[in-house]
Design a protein that fits this description.
It is a single chain. The chain is of the alpha+beta class. It folds into two domains: about 1-115, 3-Layer(aba) Sandwich (L-fuculose-1-phosphate Aldolase); about 115-273, Class II aldolase/adducin N-terminal domain (L-fuculose-1-phosphate Aldolase, 3-Layer(aba) Sandwich). Strands 2-5-4-3-1-6-9-8-7 form a nine-stranded mixed beta sheet, with helices on both faces. The relative contact order is 0.14. The termini are far apart. The chain is elongated. A hairpin with a 5-residue loop joins strand 4 (about 90-95) and strand 5. It is built from eleven helices and nine strands. It binds 1,3-dihydroxyacetonephosphate and zinc ion. 1,3-dihydroxyacetonephosphate (13P) binds near residues 29, 74, 114, 115 and 139.
Length: about 270
């Protein structure tokens, strides 16, 4: 892979992982990103098409065979990726039976894709059914949102409405709401399946006491979704530290007006009509 390190795709992931770290949402090796690339996008960088290594993966994603993903490495620190992209990122292609990936570029010290890669692949596959433009899965540990999972009921409707009412932008950015799974062991097929099931309805899923799993058709879209959700959680937290005595809020009627004005459809049944 000739000059792939200088590609727009590597620069985009290096920049966003740095931003995520700067926000404090990716301590140590917390968080992971995968970015689907098309054959056409990869082609200009292919010189010999050489496979560097074949790496086993814990799931079998036959429908994604031949698909390329630029992905963060397991155990890698987001604060380092910007300086060491060829070490901490890898470009992989899902191999014939879906049980392996072929490493085309990166992970040059022997690294492997994130431990959450099976969950990413299940997530991509699910979102691709809703939206052919789906390209990015982003997982991180946003502080205020995680804090809310200790104090708030883990009920999707209640949680979503709380965040919708914290700022006008929320409903416009995540009108379908936010999915929530129970606490589960990360890096497992079970958490991947539970998350993918939620991604059938929602573009983001809360992992209680852990973080968020978000999807999008671009790096900007996935990041924008996370920062909007986290901003709402930060406002909620600030309201609580001001005493939590809410004197006025955005009503359901106003949220319905907002949805009409912006042409979005709120999750059915979440707002009083
Ligand atoms: P990885 O280092 O394997 O990407 O894991 C980080 C993480 O956030 C697990 O949920
Ligand atoms: Zn995590």
């Amino acid at each position: 892979m000739n000059r792939f390190v200088d590609s727009l795709y590597v620069r985009e992931v290096a920049k966003i992982t740095d931003k995520l770290y700067q926000h404090g949402w990716d301590e140590r090796n917390g968080g992971n990103v995968s970015y689907r690339l098309t054959k056409e996008e990869v082609k200009p960088y292919e010189d010999t098409c050489e496979v560097l290594r074949r790496i086993p993966i814990a799931c079998s994603e036959e429908q994604l065979v031949g698909t390329y993903f630029l992905v963060t490495g397991t155990g890698r620190y987001f604060r380092n990726i910007i300086d060491f992209p060829e070490r901490d990122l890898g470009l992989v292609r899902i191999a014939e039976n879906g049980k392996y990936v072929d490493l085309m570029w990166g992970f040059n010290d022997g690294g492997r894709p994130t431990s959450e890669f099976p969950t990413h692949l299940m997530g991509h596959q699910t979102r691709l059914k809703q939206n052919k433009a789906q390209r990015v899965i982003m997982h991180c540990h946003p502080t205020h949102l995680i804090a809310m999972t200790f104090t708030q009921p883990l009920d999707e409707k209640t949680f979503t409405k709380t965040l919708w009412k914290m700022q006008t932008e929320s409903l416009v950015v995540f009108p379908e709401g936010i999915g929530i799974i129970p606490w589960m062991v990360p890096g497992t097929i079970a958490i991947g399946q539970a998350t993918a099931q939620k991604l059938e309805q929602f573009s983001s899923v809360i992992w209680p006491q852990h973080g968020i799993f978000a999807s999008g058709s671009s790096i900007d879209e996935a990041f924008g979704l996370i920062e909007t959700i986290e901003k709402a959680a930060q406002i909620w937290t600030t309201v609580q530290t001001q005493g939590g005595n809410i004197k006025q809020t955005i009503t359901d009627r106003e949220l319905n007006d907002l949805a009409r004005a912006f042409g979005v459809t709120p999750h059915p049944g979440y707002l009083e009509v």
